[in-house]
Specification:
By secondary structure, this protein is an alpha/beta fold. The protein contains 21 helices and 9 strands. Helix 6 links the parallel strand 4 and strand 5. The longest helix is centred in the C-terminal third of the chain and has 25 residues.
Length: 422
């Protein structure tokens, strides 16, 4: 296979390497009422020269900030024992496999995107069950939400100039929520926040957000290796030796795997063996790591395609099972790779030229030919059918296909939900 610099896939991404690698993170201190530095809010910067956030895609920004903080730098080096305040959108709440380890020093801040908090109660409760603290904006919490959120929300954030009544603040405290006052710039504001019962304080009075320089010159990984890793990581029987061989061909992933295994969270130090690091991390952490890195590098469409692709792949596998001449793993790979171009934003032809797949899988993806092509077509058409009203789709209901689809959807959801449970 030609070197990366000579491949169509590399040429397709080379033009935006510089722009994609220029982002960084910033930290803004969070202090307690005694002015002790107890936490930091993680902020995204599109460029290392920016002093404010420019965010067009909240999930992409969160993925990039998380990837840099957790995997490139490491939380132990970045914040030590302090809390990390991580802002997430509703879309992120629905992707529990992306929530960072360790849970015990991470505060998940829920962005106010207009979604009624009562609609998020189940998702928030699941995050709490995983051990994370939750911070909510007071402006997003309606009077009727306070009782519902009791026992779920840990921290309520607000600004002194928002005009929140003392009665509402008392209600928050009665629900066992700490109060965090934001945008404090003067000593008088600090004193006012303390009088209001705030135990957490944040603002320019303490420090403006400080940018953290990127630790590496380039974060761009080897796309073909990432694709093969995804394929291997979601097999029923994962081959650790194959994983090690793949990661060894990707300097960026190699580096962050070693760093992650040597972090204080795993209580490992001093080792540089890739195979030892894979054993320390385990398959679930590797899945989380690779998914986060891919999201951080490949933009917003990848997050929409990943679950869709895994569901399609699993459905193809179920459909192939009754036919002894077909390998269910080949069917799974066919379904997964049929959407890999969407996840990576790369043309399918260039993608298949880059990755070594069997002739039957290649033919199925390129033109829908062969038995694998027939199965892929059925799975793809049924997903389209489900996305439309049955009356408008023109495709008659089919109990067997519905069973295969619902089974695939259930397995995919269970798989993605289990990624954090080690």
């Amino acid at each position: 296979m030609p070197s990366r610099s000579d491949t169509p896939l590399a040429n397709a991404i080379a033009s935006d390497d510089l722009a994609e690698d220029s982002y960084c993170i910033a930290l803004q201190p969070v202090c307690d009422a005694d002015l002790h530095h107890i936490g930091d809010e993680l902020l995204y910067r599109a460029s290392a020269s920016d002093d404010s956030a420019t965010i067009t895609d909240p999930l992409l920004a969160t993925a990039r900030a998380s990837s840099m903080a957790i995997y490139e730098i490491g939380l132990d080096k970045l914040i030590g024992e302090r809390l990390l305040f991580l802002k997430v959108s509703r879309e992120w709440l629905e992707r529990p496999e992306l929530l960072p380890f360790p849970a015990n020093n991470v505060v998940i801040e829920v962005l106010d995107d207009g979604t009624p908090l009562n609609d998020l109660t189940n998702a928030l409760a699941q995050i709490k069950q995983r051990g994370y603290q939750l911070a909510l904006d007071a402006s997003a919490v309606l009077q009727g939400d306070i009782e519902t959120l009791s026992g779920i929300a840990d921290i309520i954030k607000f600004r002194l100039d928002e005009g929140i009544t003392s009665e509402r603040l008392d209600a928050f405290r009665s629900a066992d929520c700490q109060l965090l006052a934001q945008r404090l710039e003067t000593r008088d504001q600090i004193d006012a926040a303390r009088r209001a019962g705030c135990s957490l304080l944040q603002g320019f009075f303490f420090a403006q957000p400080s940018n953290v320089a990127p630790p590496t010159a380039s974060r761009r990984s080897n796309p073909s290796i990432q694709i093969k890793l995804i394929r291997e990581l979601y097999r029923e029987m994962v081959n650790t030796e194959r994983l090690a061989d793949m990661i060894a061909q990707d300097p960026h992933l190699y580096l962050i795997v070693i760093k992650r295994a040597n972090s204080s969270y795993y209580a490992q130090t001093g080792g540089s063996s890739l195979r030892r690091s894979l054993h320390v991390l385990g398959i679930n952490e590797l899945r989380t790591l690779v998914a986060t890195v891919m999201l951080a590098q490949n933009g917003p469409v990848s997050r929409l395609a990943l679950k869709h692709a895994l569901t399609r792949a699993t459905m193809c596998k179920h459909l192939a099972a009754p036919f002894p001449q077909l390998d269910p793993e080949d069917a799974f790979t066919t379904g997964l790779f049929s959407l890999m171009d969407t996840m990576l934003g790369i043309g399918m032809s260039a993608l298949l030229d880059e990755v070594e797949l069997s002739d039957s899988i290649n033919a199925a993806i390129r033109d829908g030919s062969g038995q694998l092509g027939a199965i892929l077509t059925i799975a793809r058409d049924y997903q389209a059918f489900v996305a439309l009203d049955a009356e408008d789709s023109g495709m008659p209901p089919n109990a067997q296909l519905r069973t295969a689809y619902l089974g695939a959807l259930q397995e995919t959801q269970a798989l993605m939900s289990s990624l954090q449970e080690e």
